[in-house]
Amino acid sequence: MKFSERIRKKADPVWEKSHQHPFVQGIGNGTLDIEAFKFYMCQDYKYLIEYSKVIALGTVLAKDLDTMSGFAKSLDETLNFEMDLHRQYAEHLGISRDELESTVPGPVTLAYSSNMLAEAQKGSLAALIAAILPCAWSYHEIGLELAKKPGALEHEQYGEWVKMYSSDEFGSIGKWLIEKLDELAEGCTETELNDLEAIFLNTSRYEYMFWDMAYKREGWPV
């Protein structure tokens, strides 16, 4: 069994909860409260800024040019493709660029992004990938599943979101990270693999918490 298969199986109960979360299902069914989606878009925009910093650190930690190139491509896709969708959505939803930029990261957003950065700064490329992989991998899985729902791809508010995350272009990011993690895991001890598994599980849990935060529109307590 490849290491990626091992950790995906281990995290399956958490991923299934994310896949079935009413926020995610509401996107696919077109029933999600638009105010919850607006809240999500603003928080996710701030999250993606920090996510991009982690990807940039991957380029620094890479040991060869091919790996550097892979992270550079992922960084470009995130900064100039995924975040552009957020800006387009924001405009469509009446959210100004200034409002996006001035969004205060909520507790879950801050904790999640801080956790990723902390793992990345420990100096292990494998740990860095384990920390960001649940986002890239699970979003593509969710996109593919939602794309099967009748009308999901054509929905006025959420169709473009489903199209992007179900696309081959977005899926290629996660595929590359999976392959790179499997490659790096081949030289690890069982103790090191357990540590990587724990990182992957933690960020998988943060993914669920992010969906839940957005659904409830949870910010900082007053």
Features:
single chain; 222 residues; mainly alpha; globular
Helix/strand layout:
Blueprint: H1 3-10, H2 12-19, H3 22-29, H4 34-61, H5 65-93, H6 97-102, H7 107-120, H8 125-147, H9 159-166, H10 168-185, H11 190-216
Could you walk me through the main structural features you see in this protein, from its secondary elements to its overall organization?
There is one protein chain. This protein has 222 residues and is mainly α. 80% of the residues lie in helices and 0% in strands. The protein contains eleven helices and no strands. It has helices at residues 3-10, 12-19, 22-29, 34-61, 65-93, 97-102, 107-120, 125-147, 159-166, 168-185, 190-216. Helix 2 (12-19) runs parallel beside helix 11 (190-216). The chain is globular. The protein starts with a helix and ends in a 6-residue tail after the last helix.
The chain-level mean pLDDT equals 95
Low-confidence segments: none
* Order of SSEs: HHHHHHHHHHH
By secondary-structure content and strand pairing, the structural class works out as mainly alpha
Helix content: over 70%
Shape: globular
Give the strand content: under 5%
**Rg on CA atoms, Å:** 17 Å
The number of E-state strands comes to: 0
Q: Give the termini distance in whole angstroms.
A: 48 Å
The description of the largest β-sheet is: none
Task: Give the number of helices.
Answer: 11
